[in-house]
Design a protein that fits this description.
The protein has 151 residues and is an alpha+beta fold. It has helices at residues 6-14, 18-23, 34-47, 113-117, and strands at 53-56, 64-72, 78-86, 95-99, 121-125. It has 2 domains: 6-46, no CATH class; 49-125, no CATH class.
């Protein structure tokens, strides 16, 4: 049995020493239009009337107020989030923002209740085109994950 020393093990896992890894910024050059793209994107975002709607959810839980939160995002798409807060929580308090993984949605309301019981508001976004209620930039509701290139 051949034992490897810890330095060799680190290199095989991280491919470079830890002090270099902490400073690593990638190898791809920044696109020439990077700053222009983001300036235009931020201008578009700031020009949109978000048309925020907070509708009481059908989901009910003791000690929590539950809402379907909608707002207009870039591309004029309506975005959905589950929003929960402590009952009577119309006052400043800490919040948790949740963003789900690829091809999923904002999840079950019950998953957010432990945070609410600790005094936090929770906003769980349905990322566009991934399976929730948000619209993608093409105006399609729900999951556009599969065959989006064909659309």
């Amino acid at each position: 049995m051949n034992l490897i020393d810890s330095e060799e093990l680190k290199m095989s896992v991280f491919e470079m020493p830890l002090d270099e890894l902490k400073k690593y910024r990638g190898i791809n050059p920044c696109p020439k239009d990077f700053n222009e793209y983001w300036s235009q994107a931020l201008e578009e975002m700031k020009s949109i009337d978000p048309n925020i709607e907070m509708l009481k959810s059908d989901f009910k839980a003791l000690g929590a107020e539950c809402f379907d939160l909608y707002f207009t995002g870039v591309g004029n798409a309506r975005i959905h989030a589950q929003y929960l807060r402590p009952e009577g929580g119309n006052y400043p308090h800490p919040a948790v923002l949740m963003f789900h993984g690829y091809s999923i949605d904002s999840g079950d309301w019950v998953e957010k209740l432990p945070y609410v019981s600790l005094g936090y508001s929770v906003a769980a976004l349905d990322c566009r085109g991934q399976g929730g209620l948000s619209e993608d930039s093409g105006g399609v509701k729900g999951n556009t994950l599969k065959a989006s290139m064909l659309r």
